[in-house]
Amino acid sequence: MKAVVVDRYVENYGELRVSEVAKPKAKDDEILIQVKAAGVNFVDTLYARGLHQNNRRHIKPPFTLGLEFAGLVLSSPTTSPFRPGDGVFGAYAGSYSEYIVLPSSYPVYRVPPSWSYAEAAGIAATLPVSYGALSLPGVLKPGSTVLVHAAAGGLGLAAVQICSALGYRVFGTAGSAAKCRLAGFFGAEACIDYEADPRWWDRVVSLTDGNGVDVVFDSVGLVEQSIKCLAHRGRALVVGFAGRNRENLEKVAMNRVLLKQASLIGYRFGETGRRYPHETTIIWEALLPLIKSGRIKPAVYDREYRDLGSVPRALEHVASRKVWGKAVILIDDDASRQRASL
Ligand SMILES: NC(=O)c1ccc[n+]([C@@H]2O[C@H](COP(=O)([O-])OP(=O)(O)OC[C@H]3O[C@@H](n4cnc5c(N)ncnc54)[C@H](OP(=O)(O)O)[C@@H]3O)[C@@H](O)[C@H]2O)c1
Asked: How far apart are CA 311 and CA 113, in angstroms?
């Protein structure tokens, strides 16, 4: 079978190759899944180059790239809730692969009946991250206003949808007017193109009648500027640094934190799952009803990435900020029935 195996870290995504590897065999207590589609993540761009903190410990060459999948159950033990023929999705390190094998106790979820595999493929390493951060104790309070940076990105659009579904006023920033329109479609009350408006924080202050927002969801690396439009005793959720690299990691002037009595709260989903697995269970118990009721919808980027050979192109597009929502690799022809469009 084919898989995108990283034998050594690359400098350019074009160096990534599709390898021929042995098809995995399921043991008695394992599920064999044919991967139909795989979500593309910013984290894949870091893993491929060995730049993620997990590359120091958990993920080292050789490894198969990819973090999310949706696929067809081919075989399962009788103890599993899934039968051959069921469509499932989940988070799995190594999803850029035609087949994967998982322990029957591994957390996978049924593809909602109205969703295609492509739509379900970009959910499991994205949506629970945003939900996990936003649901940390004390972050959202009744009536909270929220500002989501990169509101059309993977984590950002998920955060917008979660806040909107839970009834909070949510504002966004994004790098183009088109991305802002998308954030608005998915629930942002207003979205500011921060490329066109370099003093976006002033707009946020005026949108909130001079108060500023109670919560900032930051996956870009904009905490210091965000404090300018944070309400007194507001909370800044630090979930990522897509706009930064090792050389220009954000440093925040602590006098600003003190003056605003702000709280800076870091969140790391993978580490949460390793240290406090019950929290991941709680996150999914909250998310699945939102998905089933249609209050959270998939948002698949409308450029087509067909078969594993398109992984380098997709990663290039993520790194160069072309992608909105989730780019998805279609590994099998019937993975896609429908698309969201901008
Ligand atoms: N804390 C966790 O557990 C966790 C989990 C997953 C990911 N992350 C991190 O969260 C961040 C976002 O991940 P994601 O999956 O949402 O990524 P994504 O879908 O690629 O979205 C990132 C967005 O950031 C904006 N951006 C600004 N400057 C950028 C730059 N120089 N390069 C690329 N994008 C830039 C882009 O939106 P605009 O064009 O609108 O600015 C882009 O759409 C990453 O740093 C990732 O490593 C953290």
From this structure: 27
